Amino acid sequence: MTVTTTDLFTTHEELLSSALRAITERGYWSAYPESPSPKVYGETAAADGKAAFNALQGLDFPLDQPADEWVAPEQSPFGIPLGVRYPRTSPDALIAAARAALGSWRDAGPQQRAGVCLEILARLHKRVFELANAVHATTGQAFVMAFQAGGPHALDRALEAVAYGYAEQTRQAGSVVWTKKADTLAKTYHLVPRGIGLVIGCNTFPTWNSWPGLFASLITGNPVLVKPHPGAVLPLAITVQVAREVLAEAGLDPNTVQLAVDTREAPIAKDLALRPEIRLIDFTGSTAFGDWLEQHARQAQVYTEKAGVNTVVVDSTADFAGMCRNLGFSLTLYSGQMCTTPQNLLIPAGGIETEAGHKSFDEVVDGIAGAVRAITADPAKAVEFTGAIVNGDVVDRIEAARKLGDVVLDSAELAHPAYAGAVVRTPMIVKVTDGYAAECFGPVTFAIPTESTRQSIDIFRETVGQMGAITAAVYSTDESVLDAVEQAAMEVGVHLSANLTGGIFVNQSAAFSDFHASGANPAANAALTDGAFVASRFRIIQSRRPA
Fold this sequence. Notes:
alpha/beta; seven-stranded mixed beta sheet
């Protein structure tokens, strides 16, 4: 099958126009249905996707890249025997192939690149159930979450990046005849990509966190090396496979996108990141490695999303049960293994005012703990919210947190009804007065008694200012308190949610409306997705000649 890039742009032009409008208007809009219902995707879609996923297990992954050897680094948190083998290609070969692909991809221009990118997204959408199974198996996410976050929501974020990249490249003329008195010049403005991009994937959200950087670099003309986390290779291997197929069919070099696989025993991320040919790096993961990239990969434009101390200021509420339910669900979802999950609950030691009267500090904490207990009471239902623990480091953090204070709600082990090998843990809430200023990734929440809401705001400002955060929340019936926390959030550069008691949660981020991370505090130096996320991935080089 052969298609032209012009045909691809024409096919997807209406979708691109809708996305361009959505990033301006910021209202609710989604291009990809988030419900895995057969009424939406067809009666056989789920079974077909599962069968396609099963067919990959225990075999060499079909990818047309040269292989120095084949490796199978993944270990499923659910104990699913994946056994998929991937080609490991040397960094030298990857970079040489990417350099050779750069010219044709650059010269394709933003319109043709947009057509290719949107076709890749369309084909990934057709394989959404296969991708959902891959995300589910490699991350420990419950299946519905894996479908939504790993499929439609990730596709929306990728489309958002394409829209921003296209807008940034096309908002001015490509050439102009310029006249000043007796002098006339023909000026041409060339869009020049930075160079080779490197996307370093994470174990927990391999598509949601990787696709924005991948497509932001592609739409702006940069070939990309995709280096998955060794624990979650398959979702990104499918991504690369689809991208290479579309590129080849469009008559472009498939090495514009390549898979860079490594293992825990022989990592290559640092080696690749320091190569002078690597000019863009997108990373999601630990603070330690994110800081290392920012400090050492000086030849590249580095975009990092790291860890932070997500904080909730509880002052008062007009819906105590709703507040407890909302926070309880936020703490339970994916066992707190989200960069957006609340960690610190700042509550006045004297308690708070509610529609049901005064609640003491202990009653507030018990209310939130009770909501968690209600969600996790039935193990068969609970695992559809908690998923599985992604790695042993999370379990170690639970054990360490237990020693920091008084355990109000202990983390319990649950047996997964479908996967005997899964490690499942419910959320823990610990009352502490110290030790809460560092990030503790996983199902651990600290309940912190403060002298007053004023002190809560001061602690919020101090901890987020020093450690960063991806999200923050406040509960109050006092407009002056809401305003004070909003002012503090602006000062420390963190997105704020106020009085969430219904079906929207602080750890959710909606593409085309919400910015994920801000780039304005230590937790992340970039936002997904805005103009700044794409604009530095290319430069405008002008030439002038007498007309």
